[in-house]
């Protein structure tokens, strides 16, 4: 898609984040008054290890254009190894994305600590820029069919 057709496009980004690290880092971004895109909605989990990756598909079926999954750095997980479990599930989930035809660039997986507010801002801004370039996600019906649910976006 050309950038002209996407100039007014504001992507809807859903961020699934760890309560202990990334959520605190996002909070630091705000309290530090760092500039970052405001079209990201955060869903807070106790740990990224608790995220069912089918939620990512449900987010796409519900109209999300892009997704961020972010938690503690390796060996810093509040629950010891939750981030490693999430990372392993992510590697398997990537294969499903290929099967469904979802561009891997629509999902960002990152580690952001509570002290990395600037990294969170950069992650959000970079993700929004990438999704703007890709354009709106239009295959939500295909994902909804896979999930067996009605699409309400029409």
Automatic annotation (TrEMBL):
GO terms, molecular function: iron-sulfur cluster binding; metal ion binding; oxidoreductase activity
Keyword vocabulary terms for this entry: Iron, Iron-sulfur, Metal-binding, Oxidoreductase
All residue ranges annotated as the F420-non-reducing hydrogenase iron-sulfur subunit D domain in the record: 13-135
Pfam families in the record: FlpD (PF02662)
Protein name in UniProt: Hydrogenase iron-sulfur subunit
Organism lineage string: Bacteria, Pseudomonadati, Bacteroidota, Bacteroidia, Bacteroidales
